[in-house]
Design goal:
Oligomer: single chain
Helix content: 55-70%
Radius of gyration: 18 Å
Shape: globular
Largest sheet: none
Number of strands: 0
Number of helices: 7
């Protein structure tokens, strides 16, 4: 039998600690990807279920965090493939409640500019700055080299900066 990695030797308490420490981050990632609270909650729970199921067969290739994001990423991609288009009449009404309108305007401009980027650039920025993953963790999640991740982050930031300038925001 092949040598098992560290994850297959985790105790129930250690697995629980990983889940408790990572739950909010995985939920935020799923929510950012699909923009639906209930669906993000379901995908987050499914991520941890699959994580626990995979522990006995998983050969250590990195930190559990990278495995969790990989599972969540794949589940979100599958969710989009199975999703039916939302009718305009079903779109939720969103009423901003923030008093600071300048901050809200900046958030809107930033999100609009990010949405103009290709999906791969959006995701790499989300993982790096939204989820604060390290370059080597992103490399594991995305299945690429650290050099490729750094290159893509730089390109995504350059593209975002160009879009922000078009929107009248200079950084």
């Amino acid at each position: 039998m092949a040598n098992r990695g560290k994850l297959s030797n985790l105790t129930a308490g250690e697995v629980e600690a990983i889940i408790l420490n990572s739950y909010d981050d995985i939920y935020k990632y799923c929510y950012w990807k699909i923009k639906d609270c209930a669906e993000a909650e379901d995908l987050t729970q499914e991520t941890f279920l699959r994580f626990v199921q995979a522990l006995s067969d998983y050969k250590e290739q990195g930190k559990p965090k990278a495995l969790l994001y990989t599972i969540a990423r794949n589940l979100c991609l599958n969710w989009y493939k199975q999703r039916k288009p939302l009718a305009l009449s079903e779109a939720p009404d969103i009423v901003p409640t923030e008093a600071d309108t300048e901050h809200l305007e900046n958030q809107i401009v930033l999100e609009q500019c990010i949405q103009l980027l290709p999906p791969d650039q959006q995701e790499i920025l989300l993982l790096r700055y939204g989820q604060e993953l390290q370059v080597n963790e992103i490399a594991e999640v995305m299945g690429m080299s650290r050099f490729a991740v750094m290159y893509r982050i730089r390109n995504a930031l350059d593209a975002l900066n160009k879009e922000l300038r078009k929107g009248g925001v200079f950084i």
